[in-house]
Amino acid sequence: MRQVICNWMIILILFKYGATLRERDTSTTPLIQSTLMGDGVDYDGDSEKENEPSSVPICTAHQSNCKKTRYRSYDGSCNNLANPTWGTPNNPYENMAQSNYADVVNSWPKASDGASLPNTREISMYIFIPKHEIEHKWSLNTQQWGQIVAHDLSLTAGPNVAKLESPVCCDYNGHIAPDAHTHPLCHYIPIPPNDDVHVPEGKQCMNFIRTTSTKDINCTGPNDLAAPLSVVTSYMDLSLTYGNDERHAKAIREGSGGRLWTTVRNGYEWPPQTGNIKKDCIGVHSTDEPCYLLGDTRGNQSPQLTALHIILVNEHNRIADALSTLNPHWDDEKIYQEARRITIAETQRINYYEYLLILLGKNNMADKKLIYPNHKNYVNDYNPNVSAAIYKEHASAAFRHFHTMIRGYLNLITEDRILAKSVRLSDWFNRPALLEKGDGFDDLIRGLSYQAADKSDEYWDLEITRNLFRGNRSSGVDLRAMDIQRGRDHGLGTYVELRAHCDLPVPDTFKDLKEYMSRENVKKLEELYVSVEDIDLVVGGSLEKHVPGALVGPTFLCILLQQFLNIRIGDRYFYENGKDQDIAFTLPQLNSIRHGASMARLLCDNGHNIKWMQRRAFELVSDENSLVRCDELPAVNLTLWQESRRNNN
Known about the structure:
The protein is mainly α. It has helices at residues 2-17, 120-127, 140-153, 239-242, 246-251, 277-280, 303-326, 332-360, 362-367, 392-398, 440-450, 462-465, 479-489, 495-501, 519-528, 537-543, 554-569, 587-596, 599-606, and strands spanning 20-21, 91-92, 134-139, 189-190, 205-206, 229-230, 263-265, 268-270, 409-413, 419-424, 452-454, 612-614, 627-629. The protein has 19 helices and 13 strands.
């Protein structure tokens, strides 16, 4: 009966929405959306509602013997043959440094004198002030692609993982709710009395729900150290496109031709509509607006994020269509898995040889063996003793620093590189309808590569420190305050402790900090914190002077280099690995990926009518990086995947 109801729901949605559904295997009817989608509060997707894949707690999971397979599992299991659950959903984040809880379990951190740490909203208001310092080299795409990478690697667990009701700690109007005093996961952010935005509006708090931990799912004893959980795979495997388990993966497949499921509206393919628009896209103005079913629960969070999700769906389908033509004897499953494998490889190439170069610096990455420039052979650096698990210092501090590059207004740019219009970010949170308004999709994609990002610094846009998820209110929540609060929730080691872990000079006094950051910021830190030993990693790391060639200081650089090295060498399926020829690309295929995979080509191939793009799409257009015709850009040669019938596996 439920299957019949679901099918009728889809028919009614499509009838009302005016979409043409591509022919699709009905066995992959989408799941009830409450198990797939959610409306988390945190911009990088800290989960607060029913938006996690349902799976067995990792401490009770059965570690079966693994068989070698050509393709990745959806949930990351058996990537490491000796440790099958490494990198799978519902695993705890790893620690770089010792956890900093007030007890040995997971109680909220305290200052060194036993008092409360400074209010996170107050830190945000005082240090991370709204001031625009615009990048002169890097496009907004640099910031936005970072959110794609972040969502691929981690998603903190919400209450339903522990079968707990999701609490309301602070209600929609900013008033303290009854759950705040009774629910174990409530830890709202109080509004400080000097808050000139929220105090006049009568707000008392910002909602904040603690991450579900190993303690909450009975994986650790009541007196043992608890660890926060991530509910997506930690591998760079495009789980945000394909889902984190087989059930979700099937729900977004077309069932023929190896394609991901799309519908056709106004002559263009779009991901299918969700089954509960008002819940899954809480910013919509009517149920006639689009709200997409994607591989990740956060995909509708902002229009620029959604646009890149659609680019990746289109790329998979573009490759699947080409492989289907080249190999008409291949069945749906083989086309799908090969297209998935190629798309993942392309994004890994873009991540390591374009995107991360900007953040971490080419020389820094080469020195630590994260990249091998101009290499023409396999890079056999897979290490089965290294876990690709995500460090909480990475997910909750270092990688969040790049929120500072977010722009509060998005420029929509025509093919002639003329400004069509500028839209306010907070008007479009959880409302992707902008993409289907006229040429909105292409104009926004062009804008990401043409508009400058904000600089990587301590200055933050008001749209995310005052108006995040504003909805119909006059103001929203503060992302920077949320970031600092999440760091405390996860018991991050302090700024000083992480400097020690990274073998960097350790400050004993506030005066010592002047070697690493501006005098003005040192003065502010001294006014806020009792001791230099209390400075939050999220805060101190964001204020450091940058390492040459990088967009971060030495502490965050240390964390990021180690994290992305582990993700590379801890992944048996990483695209440059050739140790296992059953899963490796052929050398001609690998070198074609190296030559042809780029951010510019990805955008060109998968926009609707994008004809021109600069070669380095993370870099602003300039005399040294001028616009070229898309067909002049190198491309992956998919004919290298053509195979005769007798070679078909």
